[in-house]
Target: C-Maf-inducing protein
Amino acid sequence: MDFNGGSELHNNQFYPCEESKPLLGEMSAPTAPEGNNNAKLGAGPPCRRSLLLPCSSGMRYKLLQEGDIQVCVVKHPRTFLSKILTTKFLRRWEPHHLTLTDCSLVSATPTGYMETALSYSSIEDLQLLSWDNAPKYCVQLSVPGGTVLLQAANSYLRDQWFHSLQWKKKIYKYRKVLNNPSRWEVVLKEIRALVDMALTSPLQDESIHQAPLHIISTLLAENTNLSAQDHESIIVAIAPLLENNHPPPDLCEFFCKHCRERPRSMVVIEVFTPVVQRILKHNMDFGKCPRLRLFTQEYILALNELNAGMEVVKKFIHSMHGPTGQCPHPRVLPNLVAVCLAAIYSCYEEFINSRDNSPSLKEIRNGCQQQSDRKPPMPLRLLRPEPPTPPPPTTLSPPPLALSPPPSIVNSSEIMVELERNNNTANVLRKAPTGGDSEPNLIDCLLVSPALSALSIQLPAQADRVLACFALILKMLSDYDDWRPALASLLQPIPFPKEALAHAKFTKELKYVIQRFAEDPRQEVHSCLLSVRSGKDGWFQLYSPGGVACDDDGELFASMVHILMGSCYKTKKFLLSLAENKLGPCMLLALRGNQTMVEILCLMLEYNIIENKDTQLQIISTLESTHVGLRMYEQLCDRQRELKELVRKHIVSDVCAVLCLQDADLARLLSSGSFGNLENLSLAFTNVTSACAEQLIKLPSLKQLNLWSTQFGDAGLRLLSEHLACLQVLNLCETPVTDAGLLALSSMKSLCSLNMNSTKLTADTYEDLKAKLPNLKEVDVRYTEAW
Model:
């Protein structure tokens, strides 16, 4: 009996015997001998076979884990009777649902031919066969004592089963060989062969590249005594697999170790750079694989150790952003920020853990979670400036007070806080025990002291370098215009440990980033200076005079106030918050001649924000103390005198007409004289409604109209659109207008500036207005559906 005939697949070509070649030569391509008897199951002429190598442009298959297939077992005939029983006419096929495990081929119904699992180690040969007058689409597995035939439903499934079985068999063999290494020269060759096999496999599956990486990472984890040269050889060998795959956690740990021990190695630049770039571009959540983040962090620190230092890091950040003005990869910035935040947190991790007596991330990773296993708390060093040397005491003078002690080191179980007395005659030390539920954190303790800038935390040298590196990266990120809105949003909750905010060096480095936010005219950027929610401090409070991070006498605070007041970000509410919480710093900066603060104080008086008469007098005195303040206060007084004159003529009812003006008041005002040439009118923050439109249409020369934060509605807009053809600038911010009234503006062809911020504008109406108003150049649609 023999199996011969023509093949319907691959033009009578068959895959050669894999077991006949050594493991290192499995990816070579020798031509099989024509007279190979391994192709025979009985007597007869041999089958001709030639090698078919998978190519990059050939068929691709998904790795099978399980599936339904027909199974037939043919044992080698030894007698005439057994030869008759194995003929194709008496052959029996069984349906089985087979599962390809890591070590064997198992049936879901272990009966018949598949009563016992078929181990990959028992498969001597694996090939595709076809013969005349026989079932098609068969895979032949040569086992001791016979052959196992697997019949698929079609040629594609047959090839898929063949490649999947071939892959499982090879991976099983490589796992056994590399789990018991003998010589590292041989191991390195096996690793290279394993990588080549994964790269040339026709299977397309995540596990095709991940399985070799896991095998190699296990090998490295179990053999920690490798030399640095062996490390680099292995990294270079597996580099092709990392081009399109994240390294597994154990391999990340190995890479981190290499970055720490050999930061100047060329492997860091040539091999790790594309790996880290791929992580930053494609990683979605570092929380699922924190070692990817740790590897990225160590890689950046390794770049910082090169001769050029931060210049190399800067070039790397620029390469991640790209040469254009818009970064094409949306995940790069969040991932970089996550790496920076984690690295900055790690600098203060020992302080935090020693304060709350909790295990560090490193201890948890190493399994050292017991109290007795952990290191003693790291001392917290609070540095104080040297006190001035007192004059030598005389015999008539009282005994001198004790001077402050030199910089001391205290454990986390006690935090020393220096308090400065109001009379500056002596300093006392308050010891704040940290036991029990009332344990104060470091920031709470530092805020007790008026001399906040006199305290700072001293970090170890390595932590100080890490802090400087990643703080500088945050500064680099803030220099990119397209990244700044997202960066401001990510940093708005102040995601830093409290110890970092008490560290003068860190807050000084971070000040540049906040300054960039304060200089950005986009509201989505500078609005992130405020707190993310009420009751929680934001960067505005942190860098204001008296805040934890303020070290510039309020210059940054003034810049933030200026940009926030320049936008239409709820000005009245913002003024009220300044009057309640920051009136003192505002007055102090106004005394120093800061024009922004002078304007703020004048607005508080004009809008009647301050109700207390004594406080009003203090503000007036502050304004009169500088030339800028005196000039602006005189202008305010001129406006007030004009209002008083209107009161005297009974045109308006109160001096506070700016805020309390009603429709009737406006009617009396406009009827008191001739305003036909009036071009600019501001009714912002008044109580006028759509009814005042009947008076406004009597101003034919009106070009600029400000209705910000009024109750002016749709009916008034329709009336204005019919009569005020010359209107060029219209501010409807925070008014109750809707699409019904806004559509009427399409007839006002002279409009060149339109503010519809915080209205009920829809996207369709916005597109319609843009199409019908050709002169419209400035449009504000923030906080609307069209935004």
